[in-house]
Design brief:
binds inosine-5'-diphosphate; binds magnesium ion; Alpha-Beta Plaits; 201 residues; 4 strands; 14% strand
Length: 201
């Protein structure tokens, strides 16, 4: 007797290969890591985004921007660097605003590959495979840990974003907003079965 599977643990998340991932020829490698883990790609496209589209992709609230500033400050403290010397300010919001601008500049340097990934606890699983924001802290075995070695100190001293290959939604709310921001309903294709899933689940 066939039973309908309970899909309560199935989530959707938004993921994007950033310009450096595309330019370095890592599209296939990155997609393969998600597919091999058992996650299902249900939407995929290459896009050259406008400044406006990227600006609206990243949050604009002060809390998020200050957190962006803090990521760098924490790293400077660890390496004995003075925030004022690196950023010209020790205010995390001011620093975050600069980082956000560098981030927008980075994200429009080349096309990106946007996708929607579906699977068990997909938001957390994709973040795990992606690794820490800061490649110098990312675990080996993660995409950022295996293919990059950038740090906020190196990036901020050169007034550029950290280049870390990939974006992945951090929360359910972020995933929902980002999927809507990048894909229409017609572009999302959940209606196929992965043959290996019959053996996996
Ligand atoms: P996430 O990509 O791991 O979710 P967020 O904190 O959301 O990390 O930051 C967005 C992006 O901003 C990062 O992926 C990275 O490219 C860039 N970024 C974050 N912190 C810094 C920094 O201190 N200096 C330069 N770029 C940064
Ligand atoms: Mg984020």
């Amino acid at each position: 007797m066939s039973e309908k599977k309970n899909t309560l643990a199935i989530e959707r998340t938004f993921t994007m290969i950033k310009p450096d991932g595309v330019e370095r020829g890592l599209i296939g490698e990155i997609l393969g890591r998600f597919e091999k883990r058992g996650l299902k790609i249900i939407a995929l496209k290459m896009v050259k985004p406008s400044v406006e589209h990227i600006d609206n992709h990243y949050p604009k609230d002060d809390t998020w921007i200050a957190r962006l500033g803090d990521k760098g400050f924490n790293c400077f403290a660890e390496y004995g660097l003075n925030p004022k010397e690196v950023m010209g300010t020790d205010n995390n919001l001011e620093a975050g605003k600069m980082v956000r601008q560098w981030l927008v500049d980075y994200m429009i340097e080349a096309p990106v590959v946007a996708m929607v990934i579906e699977g068990i606890h997909a938001i957390e699983m994709v973040r795990k495979i992606t690794g820490s924001t800061l490649p110098n802290k990312a675990e080996i075995g993660t995409i950022r840990g295996d293919f990059s070695v950038d740090s906020p100190a190196a990036a901020n001293l050169n007034k550029r974003s950290i280049k870390n290959l990939i974006h992945a939604s951090e929360t359910k709310a972020e995933a929902e907003n980002e999927i809507k921001h990048w894909f229409s309903e017609e572009e999302i294709h959940p209606d196929y079965d992965r043959a290996d899933h019959a053996a996996m689940f």
